[in-house]
Every structure is written in structure tokens, then in C-alpha cells.
């Protein structure tokens, strides 16, 4: 419950009046989901209507607990797509690390087991790529 309250506070402080309500619903069994329900204007035949949309923003069972900046980005993408989140718009450290690893693997076409000599401790002992061997 403490983590959910923290995320709620972060979302309210970032989106203030764009969010009408945050509800925390206590449960058991490791359930932690974030659902966003919001209204959007829809124009049909020259007539403007409001349409209610509901989106699952996060499910802990599928993705673990979110980084705060990723959570804010997902909420922003639905509520205010053009909004700049400042420092929360920079990629997370884990995303950059994963992107770098994928890039290294694809640059050398040596497959997932090949690593560079300067990679971190976790990958030492694996087969080195042709350029680093």
C-alpha cells in the first residue's frame, strides 16, 4: 500500500488538475495494476461528443513494479500526449543499458552470446565478438 500511495502522490504532483481522482483499492495476492479511465473529444458528422476510454497502464505480474518516470510517461501519453515531462522524458538507465546491449549484438552479427571485452562483470567469460577477440 505504501508503494501505491507513493505512485499516487507522484502522479498527482506531476499532473495536478489533469487527474480528477486516484483511487487506491487494497487487495491481497500481489495484485498491483494501474488503470486509467479518461474522456476524449470525438468529432463525428460535425458533432462533438465525449468518449470514455479505459487503458491498463501497468500490471505488476507482467512487468514488475514500474520506474516512476516510465509510469509518468505512460500516463502522459494518454492524458496529454504533447506535454514535456522534463527530466522524466529521458530514457531510464535500465532502458539505455538494454538498448546498448542490443546495439552491440546487432553491430557485430555474432548473436546474443558474443560480448565486448569492456562489458560489465555479468558478461565476463562469455564468447567475445570477432572485433574484440
Structure report:
35% of the residues lie in helices and 19% in strands. The model is unreliable at 106-125 (pLDDT under 50). It has two domains: 2-86, Glutaredoxin, CATH 3.40.30.10; 93-123. It has 133 residues and is of the alpha+beta class. The chain starts with a helix and ends in a 25-residue tail after the last helix. The protein has helices at 2-15, 60-63, 68-79, 93-108; strands at 33-44, 47-59. It has a two-stranded antiparallel ribbon with strand order 1-2.
Name a few traits of the molecule:
about 130 residues; alpha+beta; Glutaredoxin; two-stranded antiparallel sheet; 4 helices
In short:
With 133 residues, the protein is an alpha+beta fold. Helices cover 35% and strands 19% of the residues.
Amino acid at each position: 500500500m505504501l508503494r501505491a500511495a507513493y505512485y499516487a502522490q507522484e502522479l498527482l504532483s506531476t499532473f495536478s488538475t489533469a487527474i480528477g481522482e486516484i483511487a487506491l483499492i487494497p487487495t491481497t495476492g500481489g495484485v498491483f495494476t494501474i488503470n486509467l479511465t479518461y474522456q476524449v473529444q470525438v468529432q463525428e458528422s460535425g458533432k462533438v461528443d465525449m468518449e470514455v476510454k479505459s487503458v491498463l497502464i501497468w500490471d505488476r505480474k507482467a512487468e514488475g513494479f514500474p520506474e516512476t518516470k516510465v509510469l509518468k510517461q505512460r500516463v502522459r501519453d494518454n492524458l496529454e500526449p504533447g506535454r514535456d515531462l522534463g527530466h522524466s522524458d529521458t530514457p531510464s538507465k535500465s532502458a539505455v543499458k538494454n538498448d546498448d546491449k542490443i546495439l552491440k549484438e546487432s553491430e557485430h552479427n555474432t548473436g546474443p552470446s558474443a560480448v565486448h571485452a569492456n562489458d560489465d562483470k555479468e558478461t565476463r567469460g562469455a564468447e567475445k565478438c570477432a572485433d574484440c577477440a
